[in-house]
Amino acid sequence: MKKILLFFIAMFFIAEFVEAQDIIIPKDKSKSKLTVILIKVSQASSGVVEYKYYNNQEGPTYSMPWSQISMIIPETGETMYPPVEVVENNEYKKSGEDRGNKFKIGVIAGLNFSNFSYKHSGSFVGSVINYGYNESSGETPSYKSGTGFNLGVTVDVRLNKSFYLKSGLIYSNQKVSNSFSASYSYYKEYSDMYLIGTLYDDYTEKYNLNYLEIPVLFSYYLPLNRSGKFNMQFNVGPVIGIGLTGKCNFTGTNSSQGYNLEAYSYNGYYISNYGIDTKYDGYVDLFGGDGSYDYVFITETEGTEDIECENSYQRLNLGLNFGVDVEIYGVSVGFAYVVGLNNYANDSFWSGDRAIITDYISSDVSGYKQRTNSFMITMAYKFAL
């Protein structure tokens, strides 16, 4: 991670240590291009361009009429043709798309590949759903990345030379899955008998979260050709996410009520099987709390139950974005990795009973912290103002 951060910092600031140089290309093909420092560019097609040679900046000032010039490529990389609208002191303007323009706005869409990272101070971790398993059985989540999407508007504000502030308003959908399968031996004594057997759970969880995101990225444009139509853009900065909706949908089979337990008398005689095998299908509201589930017993008895719980996640989700865009004629393809910065897990939910769906309750989750990390692929179209 440190190497990646140092790479982006170097790309952002390397331009500050390089002298600006401009290129004048004469109309006369027999003459070589001139590497210069532009001093003044006339706004009239009949005017002249004043310059100093790049390798002799302390020397005299020369001039060349526009009539002898094919084009000028300033240090910004955007080609200038005669006549051109010019501002003194090496700041240039022209009609159409221009690297010197103050704003670039556009639309953006792409894919998110998100996953959860977590840590805890206790010895036991459980998912949002409380399946009733204790420390010895493990009930440890196995989160896997899902495919979501992003869609929104983007704006680049020119700060200085090739440095920009990149922001926008993005609707971001993030999906993560979790599968859980566990079993453990069970034994319980009663006054006239005892139960023995194996309890098990087998579940799949689908997390679907939607955020409104505001990126605040510092960006450096690197021209890859003289026309300035082919660029790379290096981005780094925070992303502020506000949770809009979030659900954990779950489905699976549970035997924690003991369908496959056997009852024996204390003299060793078999009495009968005991308990009810149950199938579940339900959801939990991650930001709002509570939920519900449908159940079907093996006896085909069915019904619906409510889940009463607190919100498992806070709505604020902060990240640090490292990215690069490749832009050709206003169309860009971007790649970014967003590292989660804040713990958004609600401690009172995780240290409590969580979302209970079985009669056997385990709640020994302590010091739980969770973050979301995402890899993003985007496509955008931007135009200058």
Written overview of the protein:
The protein is mainly β and 385 residues long. It folds into two domains: 21-92; 103-384. The chain contains two helices and 23 strands. It has helices at 2-13, 347-350; strands at 22-26, 34-41, 48-53, 62-65, 69-73, 86-87, 91-92, 103-119, 129-130, 143-160, 163-189, 194-215, 217-223, 230-254, 261-264, 270-274, 278-285, 291-297, 302-307, 316-328, 331-340, 355-356, 369-384. Strands 8, 10, 11, 12, 13, 14, 15, 16, 17, 18, 19, 20, 21 and 23 form a 14-stranded antiparallel β-sheet that branches. The longest helix has 12 residues, at 2-13. The model is unreliable at 6-18 and 84-100 (pLDDT under 50).
Would you summarize the structure shown here?
It is built from two helices and 23 strands. By secondary structure, it is mostly beta strands. The radius of gyration is 32 Å and the shape is rod-shaped.
Please write out the topology.
Layout: H1 2-13, E1 22-26, E2 34-41, E3 48-53, E4 62-65, E5 69-73, E6 86-87, E7 91-92, E8 103-119, E9 129-130, E10 143-160, E11 163-189, E12 194-215, E13 217-223, E14 230-254, E15 261-264, E16 270-274, E17 278-285, E18 291-297, E19 302-307, E20 316-328, E21 331-340, H2 347-350, E22 355-356, E23 369-384
Parallel strand pairs: 9-22
Antiparallel strand pairs: 1-2, 1-5, 2-3, 3-4, 6-7, 8-10, 8-23, 10-11, 11-12, 11-13, 12-14, 12-15, 13-14, 14-17, 14-20, 15-16, 17-18, 18-19, 20-21, 21-23
Shape: rod-shaped
Q: pLDDT under 50 segments (min length 5)?
A: 6-18, 84-100
Per DSSP E runs of 2 or more residues, the count of β-strands stands at 23
Given the helix and strand composition, which structural class is it? Answer: mainly beta
